[in-house]
Write a structure and sequence with these properties.
284 residues; alpha+beta; Aminopeptidase; seven-stranded mixed sheet; six-stranded mixed sheet; 26% strand; globular
């Protein structure tokens, strides 16, 4: 199935984020201009790798680095033959979990591990500990954004409010759902963004919890609600958008990987990221 980053909606979103986007024969090419040194060209999980188109764009935008994240090992051999080298740090998660949503809910929950089942049962018995709400207004989105910034360390990336607005705006038909978890007094203690593509995929895009949210394990209820939403709107696959990959170890991913694995699912591997540097000012 086509990755969400190869959809027209995602292309429109990145345009709003300041990228130049060339969509050629249904493949998205993302270009970022950098002062003085040229441009970076990013191609993420395309259905086909077209080196002629890539070369034309490199010449047009004076590209000094090509970043390409292939979908298959077959593509890796092709990239190696063209001088691409594997990067130690993938841009997209190189390993993920996917749940088959075509199964009955009873079969999906049967694959949940004990910690997920017990936490969700507890939440259903005491609704006040993890009241989940869907964001529908700009005012609520501002509260979501402020809560997110306050919940994480300054070193953690938090999208700007404009970026969140752009994300919702550029998926008009398949609008992302943004959920918040609240304590008994109504304060936001966690949140999550779930996106979907027109190709039957739903993604656990991003999420956060503050100290109270982590203590009450509210993230389990957020993911459960997102999973139910994905099934309701007809998605066939629920993608957790990344878990710890031993090939590219990042120990900070171990904690949320344990959390995601408690929902079961099938592990899916991608080859990683491949790059190639060029000398754009020799192009004529």
């Amino acid at each position: 199935m086509i990755d969400i980053r190869q959809t027209q909606e995602y292309a429109d979103y990145l345009k709003c984020e300041g990228w130049i986007v060339a969509r050629i024969e249904n493949i998205n090419y993302f270009i970022k201009k950098l002062p003085l040194i040229g441009s970076v060209l990013k191609i993420q999980r395309p259905e086909e790798i077209n080196f002629k188109t890539t070369e034309k764009l490199c010449r047009k935008y004076r590209v000094f680095q090509i970043i390409l994240e292939p979908k298959s090992e077959r593509d890796v051999k092709l990239l190696a033959s063209k001088g691409f080298k594997q990067s130690k740090s993938p841009y997209l998660p190189s390993k993920t979990l996917q749940i088959d949503l075509t199964q009955p809910i009873s079969k999906i929950t049967a694959n949940f591990k004990k910690d997920a089942r017990s936490t969700l049962l507890r939440a259903s018995q005491d609704r006040g500990t993890s009241n989940i709400k869907e964001i529908s207004s700009l005012s609520d989105l501002r509260k979501f954004h402020n809560a997110w910034r306050k919940s994480v360390k300054f070193t953690r990336f938090v999208p700007s409010l404009d970026s969140l607005i752009n994300l919702r705006k550029n998926f008009p038909t398949h609008k992302p759902i943004i959920l918040t978890s609240h304590n008994k007094s109504g304060s936001i203690i966690g949140g999550a963004i779930f996106t979907r593509s027109l190709h039957d995929y739903a993604y656990y895009w991003q999420g956060f919890t503050n100290n109270e949210g982590r203590t009450s394990l509210s993230q389990y209820s957020l993911v459960w609600k997102g999973l139910l939403w994905a099934k309701k709107v007809g998605c066939k696959i629920f993608d957790f958008e990344g878990i710890y990959d031993e090939r590219f170890p990042n120990k900070s991913w171990l904690g949320f990987t344990h959390f995601k694995q408690s929902f079961g699912g099938k592990e899916v591997l991608y080859p990683g990221c491949y790059t190639k540097f060029r000398f754009p000012y020799f192009d004529r």
